[in-house]
Design brief:
Elements: H1 3-24, E1 27-30, E2 39-42, H2 49-54, E3 61-66, H3 73-81, E4 85-87, H4 94-105, E5 109-112, E6 123-124, H5 129-138, E7 142-148, H6 150-153, E8 166-173, H7 175-181, E9 184-185, H8 186-193, E10 222-225, E11 228-231, E12 237-239, H9 251-268, E13 272-283, E14 291-299, E15 303-308, E16 315-316, E17 326-328, E18 332-338, E19 342-347, E20 350-355, H10 360-371
Parallel strand pairs: 1-8, 2-5, 2-7, 3-4, 3-5
Antiparallel strand pairs: 6-9, 7-8, 10-11, 11-12, 13-14, 13-20, 14-15, 14-16, 15-17, 18-19, 19-20
Helix pairs in contact: 9-10
Length: 379
């Protein structure tokens, strides 16, 4: 896009966006916002982060955005108009790297989340070496923005937003210092600050990460009621307070415990049923899905089993490959979760997307444990 038109479009969005993000989300920006060229890196807590940060930048920046964000036509048009670069998670995209280099040589700015995905637990770890190498290679000033309170104001697992401050701490640093600036635990920050993040039904969505009762270990025994999660088996109650803690525990601590429970559970069970999910399948490199259907999903020791509903009727485009109802863990590649409800992975020459209201993280971690490896966390 022409740089002048991009600047006009960017400033229009800033005009309508700054009042929203400063008043509704109580966002405070501290530090430099350079008028000269830069590459921006920040920690990532939720989908709205790019907009939240962009309104405080004095220059338009080309955001690196994952391919799945371009599937929706309206969203694709908006992202393209704002100069976003599409990133394919599953394979090296030299064309995108070339576009980034060309943009930098033309004096433009780049913005990215080095971690790729929003954090489930409020802990922001160091990104992969490839991202750091790219930032070093570009040899332009690095604007590091550390978003504090963004996770607590709307945790990835939560269904409702909380009211509370968000602090954007910006600094111009060298690449290594920039990564260290945005690598931190929001829980350490919160224990020092003890900022309040009140809201309604603060436990709503906790079932997305509380798969087992922390006390009795009951699987899928948690029921949500207002600010509390209650175990139907042992009657234990876990309340989310206004500071984000659950009975004094951080979400990161609870998730560590849940993963230990999950490891034991998968080792014992021959079959784990996760209920109904929506499946979408497309060919690698394509944006349109050639098959979509609702199915019952189960985990077995060596594979994921899919049983289509409605007597096996599946919406497909002409020429689509035969429906695959069994995905072996050893052949699953580049599994990645995004948003609150989505999981994607590569399988043979296709990309499989699974949408499930409360089991996306459970499914992702189950695949990781079965494969014995980590998920894809690229930009």
């Amino acid at each position: 896009m022409n740089e002048f038109l991009l600047s006009l479009w960017w400033n229009f969005f800033k005009l309508i966006g700054v009042p929203i993000f400063t008043l509704r989300f109580r966002t405070r920006y501290e530090g430099p916002s350079p008028k000269t060229q830069f590459i921006m890196v920040a920690n990532h807590s939720r989908d709205i982060d790019p907009a939240l940060i962009s309104w405080f930048l004095k220059r338009p920046a080309h955001w690196l955005s994952a391919q799945e964000a371009f599937i929706n036509p309206f969203r694709r048009a908006l992202l393209t108009s704002l100069g976003a670069f599409q990133i394919i998670r599953y394979e090296p995209d030299l064309m995108v790297v070339k576009r980034i280099i060309e943009a930098v040589r033309a004096g433009r700015c780049i913005a990215m989340f080095p971690y790729g995905n929003a954090s489930w637990d409020g802990v922001f770890e160091a990104p992969g070496q490839g991202t750091l190498d790219l930032v070093r290679f570009l040899k332009i000033p690095v604007l590091a923005i550390r978003a504090e309170g963004a996770y607590l104001s709307f945790p990835r697992w939560a269904r409702r937003r909380r009211k509370g401050p968000i602090f954007l701490k910006a600094a111009l640093l060298d690449p290594d210092e920039a990564i260290r600036h945005i690598t931190f635990s929001e829980w350490d920050w919160q224990r020092e600050r003890m900022e309040r993040y009140p809201g309604k039904d603060k436990a709503a969505g906790l079932e997305r990460i509380l798969w087992f009762c922390p006390f009795c270990g009951g699987f899928r025994s948690i029921a949500i009621e207002g600010d509390s999660a209650k175990c139907r088996a042992c009657r234990s109650v876990y309340t989310v307070d206004d500071y984000g803690f659950v009975e004094g525990n951080t979400i990161a601590e609870l998730l560590t415990q849940q993963l230990a429970f999950l490891s034991d559970y998968l080792r014992i069970q021959e079959k784990v049923s996760l209920g109904c999910v929506d499946l979408f399948i497309r060919t690698k490199g394509a944006l349109r899905y050639h098959s979509r259907y609702r199915a019952t999903l189960s985990l077995f020791p060596d594979s994921i089993s899919i049983e289509p509903e409605n007597g096996g009727r599946v919406r497909t485009q002409e020429g689509a490959a035969a429906l695959n109802t069994c995905f072996y863990y050893e052949n699953i590649k580049h599994q990645v979760g995004f948003q609150k409800t989505m999981l994607e992975f590569g399988y043979d020459e296709e990309i499989v997307r699974i949408r499930t209201d409360d089991s996306s993280l459970l499914l992702l971690k189950s695949i990781e444990q079965k494969k014995g490896g980590a998920s894809c966390t690229g930009p």
